[in-house]
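[job 0412] stage=fold_complex status=start
inputs:
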Amino acid sequence: MNIVVCVKQIPDPADPGALDADHTLKRDGKLILDESDSYGVEMALQLVDKAGSGEVTLVSMAPNDEVSGLRTALAMGAAKAVLVSDDALKGAGALDTAKVLAAAIKKVEGADLILAATESSDGYTGTVPEQIAAVLDLPSITFAKSVEIADGTVKVQRQTEAGYDECESPLPAVVSVTAGVVEPRYPSFKGIMAAKSKPVETVKVADLGIDGAIVGWSGAGQEIIDVAAAPAREAGEVFEDDGTAAEKIVGFLDGLKVL
Amino acid sequence: MALSKVWVHAEATENGVAPITLEMLAKAREIADVVEVFVGGDGAAVAATVGAHGATKVHATGDLSGKLQGVHVAGALAAAIEGGEAPDLIMLGTTQDGRDIGARLSVKLDKPVLTNNTEIEVGDGIVVSTQIFGGTQIVKTKFAAGSPAIALFRPKSFVAEESGGGAAEVAALAVPDAGAAGAAKLVNRHIEETSGPKLDEAAVVVAGGRGLTEAAKFEMIEELAKLLKGAPGASRAIVDAGWVPYSYQVGQTGKVVKPTVYIAAGISGATQHMVGMKGSKNIIAINKDPEAPIFGIADLGIVGDVHKVLPQLIEALKAR
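[job 0412] stage=fold_complex status=done
writing structure:
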């Protein structure tokens, strides 16, 4: 069982986000493994373990040859990584990202399953996994809250508004997983040390057979025309609880006539 | 300038047409001369409702018999567009199926799909608005790849309104063979039973987070919601931790709610949560950390222990 996991390296969500002058997300600080992706990495490791053979390969796209997030996933147990890093990708939208990741996935031989998070924590378009499947002409099941593999078939519980759908697909397939699908492991000290020497192949878009002139800003098919502060919501009164909190809340609700 | 034609994705649920569809129809009528819908399923089942909300035609695939929506509905749309039926704009909800269809279609048409929009304007082109950084900033993006533009909208961005129209005409939408890409199948549906008002429709929402410290304490949230004839909700943290099902989740990855009163108990106010509830008319926050970001948007903030405040509040409400 060989599994490719798409991972994103993002600015720490705990830090206040900022945009560069060209309206792209500021990514020049330290990048970390998107927490949403740790679930896909863990899921892949467990599925390979269960199968008894195979390995987990990471595929990522990031500026400045950034690998710190990849090292975290390698420390969890992934075997190797392919990183696409190219200035031509600045301004890339979800569709370009999917095209680039799909081309990088093709470099990985014998992939039975491609896993990704349902959405990244910074861009959260939630379309890239399905777009990757479309580019690769593969079947896909999104929003998985449970994933099992048996006899060349992947069985998925797909999250829905009202509950879940039992879905299945022949392999190879693309599956996007929700947060909470498994409990991601913490990298061990041994894992962290081993990750330092695991192979990370860094490639440019030209190496993937993609024309740099049609991706990034030039290929986005969209133009950001304005970024402005949203109307702020005024904060009201804040009280330290002195035993009268319940009374205050009831009074507030009374005032709104909802009781 | 108005658009000539807009297609809106009609999502059918066990309880009829999804609210997001009717919300988008109201907006579509404002910006286009002709409004039509497409559905991955039975057209007759939605024709009356979407007609009453201004759609004149339903392009329906008919029963997909276990095929997944994304690849097949997108394939059907792409074929119709190639056949010369192209609308100027295709609107879908930021929902599971909406994202799948929009994503597949964007690859088929080699055009971008813009997601999580909360507003759309038509003037010199089609411009959509998206909230970023927890809703503190709004980005406006113009489509620049020709027709049709593909845009996904957050639930509750628009207000649904009937148009008084009659049932929409049903037209067949042919589904081409998707080959290997169409091999995934829906085997069975599971509906989780819920009681009381629905989370995204309730006038009062009582939501709990990590501050409750353990799953069993969520009972306080359920009880309080019941007393207030509202719906219980949850932060992503406790959904991920498995305390409550995903259907309880409020936020970017969960439901968008705009109740009259939102009570956040033991929720710090991560940006991902605030996106889903900052449109509430009144917000009450209870949290022991005075620095919690939720206090920045609360109309009434209580710096206190939810384990003390909630039982007192429940007692006070029961005594009335």
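[job 0412] summary: Chain B has a mean pLDDT of 95.
[job 0412] exit 0
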